[in-house]
């Protein structure tokens, strides 16, 4: 079973629970004593940006996860106006804010090859400079 | 005592010293049952939706009146803690050339940690509930956004509808939302560092910025009508109506109760 199928099974239903468990068991056997790697979305990433480890997992709107140097950043999805830099008319879209970019939402673009979560993580690293996220950044909230 | 809120460009050296010393004192001394960090707590709490699903402070029509009451309380507490009824919150008109980031006022370091001078830890200013792991106030002035221009302010001020459904950050024809996003948000991002975060009142620039936002709303009210808050009736889901109490402020602290600044004890010069 490839990664995409495993992800879909885990994400979309109890009907696939037995299959998923089988897949996890197989994964565990391959991975030995290490934790089971979680199913990947093609847009998930785990890489370095300006020397910081940025790690994003796409789990669906409002459930996406972001870590910077292993510190969690809670994300809040809001419906908001966006103002294009070229001065064209503003438009409404969903955007993510967090404790760090609280007044500067990053537009959430659906679709397999979009990288909004990576764009958000880069923005946060730029704001942090050489500092780390504090524990407060992991606390989520609703808007 | 009624006070006149001045532009930072018009403040005397003595007024600047009085203001920053009142803030420093309020960091370590309570007044009227509150202290400085109480304000940071309220900003974090009421930025989010409350358990009755109401947005009090941001991305909602009560953005303006909520912060008006928030600033009025702080001004009162600064007067109490310093024993000086003349203390006022100054406004920072960011379309002008006067900067609050000077050694004799909010501190002159604008790129990274405010590690010395006013509002540094050694001066007596500590971070509270910081989402950035640091004990130093952070600023990155001008790195992430530019300041609004006077022309952009005029464009925003020309919107005639106070606010309308769906009463959130997505409304296009709304003075409240245009101001909140195009002016208010942008200046938070212009200052950067802690001003860009949920716990933005850690930076005293928060008060100068919001004082200017309140002044712009007052100017808008002066031309469009003082009693123009929307929504008017008490049954609009998810937002504070004209006669609904704004939390955490006490009973009767409604948008209607703060629509006129004269009874609130201040004016703008």
Automatic annotation (TrEMBL), chain A:
Family annotation (InterPro entries): MelC1, TAT_signal
Record protein name field: Tyrosinase family oxidase copper chaperone
TrEMBL record, chain B:
PROSITE patterns in alphabetical order: TYROSINASE_1, TYROSINASE_2
Keywords, alphabetical: Copper, Metal-binding
RNA-binding found in the keyword field: no
Cofactors named for this entry: Cu(2+)
Domain Tyrosinase copper-binding: 58-75, 203-214
PANTHER family for this protein: TYROSINASE FAMILY MEMBER (PTHR11474), TYROSINASE-LIKE PROTEIN TYR-1-RELATED (PTHR11474:SF126)
Protein name as it appears in the record: Tyrosinase family protein
Lineage: Bacteria, Bacillati, Actinomycetota, Actinomycetes, Micromonosporales
């Amino acid at each position: 079973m490839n990664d995409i199928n495993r992800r879909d099974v885990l994400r979309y239903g109890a009907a696939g629970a037995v299959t998923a468990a089988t897949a996890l068991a197989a994964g565990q056997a391959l991975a030995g004593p290490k934790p089971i790697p979680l199913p990947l979305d093609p847009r998930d990433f785990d890489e370095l940006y300006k020397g910081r480890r940025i790690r994003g997992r796409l789990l669906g709107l409002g459930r996406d996860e972001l870590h910077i140097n292993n510190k969690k950043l809670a994300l809040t999805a809001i419906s908001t106006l966006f103002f294009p830099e070229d001065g064209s008319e503003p438009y409404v879209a969903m955007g993510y804010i967090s404790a760090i970019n609280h007044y500067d939402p990053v537009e959430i673009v659906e679709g397999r090859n979009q990288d909004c979560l990576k764009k958000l993580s880069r923005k946060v690293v730029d704001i942090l400079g050489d500092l780390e996220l504090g524990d407060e950044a992991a606390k989520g909230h609703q808007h | 005592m009624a006070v006149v809120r001045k532009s930072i460009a018009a403040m005397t050296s003595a007024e600047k010293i009085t203001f920053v010393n009142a803030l420093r004192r309020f960091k370590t001394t309570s007044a009227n049952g509150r202290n400085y960090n109480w304000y940071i707590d309220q900003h974090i709490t009421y930025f989010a939706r409350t358990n009755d699903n109401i947005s009090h402070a941001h991305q909602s029509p009560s953005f303006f009146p909520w912060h008006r009451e928030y600033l009025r309380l702080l001004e009162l507490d600064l007067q109490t803690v310093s024993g000086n009824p003349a203390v006022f919150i100054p406004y920072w008109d960011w379309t002008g050339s006067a900067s609050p980031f000077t050694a004799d006022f909010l501190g002159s370091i604008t790129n990274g940690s405010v590690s010395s001078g006013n509002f540094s830890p050694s001066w007596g200013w500590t971070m509270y509930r910081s989402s950035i792991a640091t004990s130093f106030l952070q600023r990155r002035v001008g790195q992430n956004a530019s300041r609004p221009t006077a022309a952009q302010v005029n464009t925003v001020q020309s919107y005639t509808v106070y606010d309308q459904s769906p009463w959130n950050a997505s409304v296009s024809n709304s003075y409240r939302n245009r101001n909140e996003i195009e002016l208010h948000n942008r200046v938070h991002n212009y200052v950067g560092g802690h001003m860009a975060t949920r716990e933005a009142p850690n930076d005293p620039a928060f008060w100068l910025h919001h004082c200017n936002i309140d002044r712009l709303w007052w100017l808008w009210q002066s031309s469009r009508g003082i009693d123009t808050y929307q929504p008017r009736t008490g049954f609009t889901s998810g937002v504070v109506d004209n006669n609904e109490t704004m939390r955490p402020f006490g009973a009767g602290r409604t948008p209607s109760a703060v629509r006129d600044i004269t009874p609130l004890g201040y004016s703008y010069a």
